Amino acid sequence: MKATGEGKRFILAACLIGLAALNTGNNLIYLILSLMLAFIVISLALLRLNLAGLALRLSVPHPVFAGEASLVSLSVINSRERLPAYSLRLAPGDAAFSAEPAYCGVIEPLSVSEVHPRVVFQRRGYFRETAFVIDSGFPFLLFRRKITAAAPSGILVYPALLEDIERLPEGSAAGDGRDFRFMGRGDELHSLREYRYGDDLRRIHWKASAKTRNLMVREYAEHQSARVSVVLDNRTDAYGVDGGGDGSPIIQDETFEKAVSLAGSVARHFLDAGFPVRLLSCRKTVPFGSGAEHLFTILDVLAVVRKEDAWEGPEPSGRDGISILVTGSRRNALSLPAGQGDTVLYAADI
After folding, report:
1. 3-state secondary structure of 80
2. Which of 71, 98, 288, 297 has the lowest CB atom count within 10 Å?
3. Antiparallel, parallel or unpaired: β 143-158 and 64-65
4. Which pLDDT score is estimated for 239?
5. How many CB atoms lie within 10 A of CB 232?
6. What is the CA radius of gyration of the chain?
7. CA-to-CA distance for 212 and 342, rounded, in angstroms?
8. Within a domain: 313
9. In the predicted model, what is the mean pLDDT of residues 341-345?
């Protein structure tokens, strides 16, 4: 409870009236003083009663990304049976998000009033509830009172996605093509090599063998649909601890958040291009899939992923297509078997 400018002047006037009453002994001045004191008491009582029995509920009808303004539905519930609530202002009460102030004029008993402020969540994650400050000066604006109310929300905030990503693979995977060629059991000739014990004699290339005077066998190319493995290096060592200016350690959480955003952006890039994409990280993986629904499956994991002590998970292989490794810096990069078209992106370079 805090007195407003008008309230401070009213209290000062009441004090002066009280001094005048003591000095003069005039009953009329005493009556005026009693009315002013009653006015203050009524103002305090009604203000406290006006903010009693209120609850909040927050809902979001669309996906929410960190750092982006989202229009939400904030419901103010008046659970009192007889008394309405008047003149309520709502503002964010948590540093995890910011919002434009909202105003409710009147909320009838046992009813709900909805406002639709724009909210910006500063970080990704799962928010079970969000805190708002309810502020009111009803009825006479002599005092203002603020209460903090937690709004159950259950909002999953996705990491911010980058629009332009440099150093992505080029060629058939990043262009118009949709497949890779590698040695296998296909029908297209890939290369020639020297005969090894156990090779099928029907694959011997006699003309090439005659020219080189060594038995040469054919290697055939097999076509497989291009697939992309986005590997998020979420080991603690990949982001490390750098010393601050005063010699104190600073954990690079900001770099890790950039890496999470970069991994989601790469996944969106290739899914939009029509490629099957999977996500590999320590302890959390998403199998190959495609389409917008699969993107949000990946983002569900990235929204709550955290750093782990060591790598515990599958590793990309050369037959899985493109491997995009997203890590912190060149100094602490994860060492994994190279996949076909392997590319490393460093969050520290963003």
Report:
1. coil
2. 71
3. parallel
4. 80
5. 31
6. 34
7. 34
8. yes
9. 73
pLDDT of residue 336: 56
Say which CATH number the domain at 5 has.
Answer: 2.60.40.10
Cα(50)–Cα(136) distance, rounded to whole angstroms?
Answer: 8
In a domain, 304, yes or no: yes
**Least confident residue range of 51-55, 216-220, 241-245, 249-253:** 241-245
Number of H helices, E strands in the chain: 5, 22
67 and 204 fall within a common domain = no
| Residues 187 and 243 grouped into a single domain | no
Domain assignment present for 168: no
Question: Mean pLDDT throughout 156-179?
Answer: 66
Angstrom distance (rounded) from CA 307 to CA 101: 35
3-class secondary structure, 317: coil
Looking at the structure, tell me whether residues 197 and 277 fall in a common domain.
Answer: no
Q: Is 164 part of any domain?
A: no
- Domain interval for residue 27: 1-158
Task: Supply the DSSP symbol for 213.
Answer: T
Q: Which of 183-192, 229-238, 251-260, 287-296 has the highest mean pLDDT?
A: 287-296
Q: Is the dihedral of CA 64, 67, 70, 76 positive or negative?
A: positive
